């Protein structure tokens, strides 16, 4: 892909006929899904500490793009996030793909400096945790097809009243446009109507590991460790 084409939004992601941008042999992708407030970010941070994953939060990437000076998408992203709607997938997928590429090339550079085999071919498979994505069917299909199919989906399950309580608590300090009662209600609706079909889609592919995330952070993390063990051994 040319440099210009790699710029966010200048072209469609990639044509449907091309193969994925990353070889699943070189890259391991775990999706971390669950309702708003389920603990995706918290648990991903632990996985990074213990297993050296690269953690990419779709929501964080979108918020960073929203704030990036000169972004043509800033206003649009803010509106979608406040309304609890899903930003058009081209934007989110391109942000994720760019971030994955950046992580891969910094890894390759480090390997070279360390005197390893050098170049991307010589480094071990890079592990990515993709948090809060995909949450709409079109994103799931497009990402699998054009970026990289996932190895596993961690699904954090938690009852809505607990999610609400957590989000309202977080809203006191998060400064997020969507941690208020009105946006939270819309996010729950989007989760049930739009994101649950994605979980069902991956369940049919036997990729989903359900985790009860209503428990304490430590207990949830222990269950996640058990859940991802097969992928880490692979
Ligand atoms: N979002 C989106 N596409 C994505 C992921 C997130 O449009 O693939 C938007 C959506 O409006 C969502 C918001 O970003 O409600 C916040 O997502 P985040 O994952 O940060 O929230 P969480 O679910 O972790 O509370
Ligand atoms: Mg999050």
TrEMBL record:
Cofactor note: Binds 1 Mg(2+) ion per monomer.
EC number: 2.7.4.14
Cofactor dependence: Mg(2+)
Residue segments, region NMPbind: 57-87
Binding site for ATP: 37-42, 170, 215
Disordered: annotated segments: 1-20
Reaction equations catalysed: UMP + ATP = UDP + ADP
TM helices/strands, residue ranges: none
Keyword Nucleotide-binding: yes
Subcellular location: Cytoplasm; Nucleus
GO cellular component assignments: cytoplasm; nucleus
Region entry LID, spans: 169-179
InterPro entries in the record: Adenylat/UMP-CMP_kin, Adenylat_kinase_CS, P-loop_NTPase, UMP_CMP_kinase
Annotated positions binding a ribonucleoside 5'-phosphate: 63, 85-87, 132-135, 139, 176, 187
Any one Gene Ontology BP term: 'de novo' pyrimidine nucleobase biosynthetic process
GO molecular function: ATP binding; UMP kinase activity
Function field: Catalyzes the phosphorylation of pyrimidine nucleoside monophosphates at the expense of ATP. Plays an important role in de novo pyrimidine nucleotide biosynthesis. Has preference for UMP and dUMP as phosphate acceptors, but can also use CMP, dCMP and AMP.
Family: Belongs to the adenylate kinase family. UMP-CMP kinase subfamily.
Domain notes: Consists of three domains, a large central CORE domain and two small peripheral domains, NMPbind and LID, which undergo movements during catalysis. The LID domain closes over the site of phosphoryl transfer upon ATP binding. Assembling and dissambling the active center during each catalytic cycle provides an effective means to prevent ATP hydrolysis.
Quaternary structure annotation from Swiss-Prot or TrEMBL: Monomer.
Name of this protein: Uridylate kinase
Organism: Rhodotorula toruloides
Lineage, opening ranks: Eukaryota, Fungi, Dikarya, Basidiomycota, Pucciniomycotina
Underlying gene: FGENESH: predicted gene_3.385
